[in-house]
């Protein structure tokens, strides 16, 4: 850990000011110094001269190009857009739904069997047999 710069106690009060004054004068002189002293001005002049040369070269090249006899039309330069395709009729992704049996003109009568009594419960046609001692689910369900 570094300690800040501390002068001994026997140094008079005007010595730090005397040391600080040249540093401040140098900083102010650096801020107000013209660019030619640092060297920026000469570099900017070189860049400006090169830019003038490049602009002159572009002018000479533009004069050598053949003159356009007429202005180009937009459609001659750019290809026209392709016409938009629209489907003539909608694409059917599923078959049509057939009418219900009662909507058919020659529908058979559906009342040929009476409903079961209210106190009975539905019974499966083939009940699976239970296997004792099995705890995993059965994979051979009736279909």
Your description of this structure?
With 143 residues, the chain is mainly alpha-helical. The chain has a domain at 34-65. Helix content is 36%, strand content 0%. It contains four helices and no strands. It has helices at residues 14-32, 35-38, 40-64, 74-77. The mean pLDDT is 77.
List keywords for this structure.
single chain, 143 residues, mainly alpha
Layout of SSEs?
Elements: H1 14-32, H2 35-38, H3 40-64, H4 74-77
| Backbone CA Rg | 50 Å
Described by the principal axes of the CA atoms, the overall outline is: elongated
Terminal Cα span: 84 Å
Per DSSP E runs of 2 or more residues, the count of β-strands stands at 0
Secondary-structure-based class equals mainly alpha
Low-confidence stretches: none
Order of helices and strands: HHHH
Estimated helix fraction: 25-40%
* Percent strand: under 5%
Please count the helical segments.
4
Mean pLDDT value: 77
- Main sheet properties: none
Quick structural summary:
With 143 residues, the protein is mainly alpha-helical. The chain is 36% helix and 0% strand. The chain has a domain at 34-65.
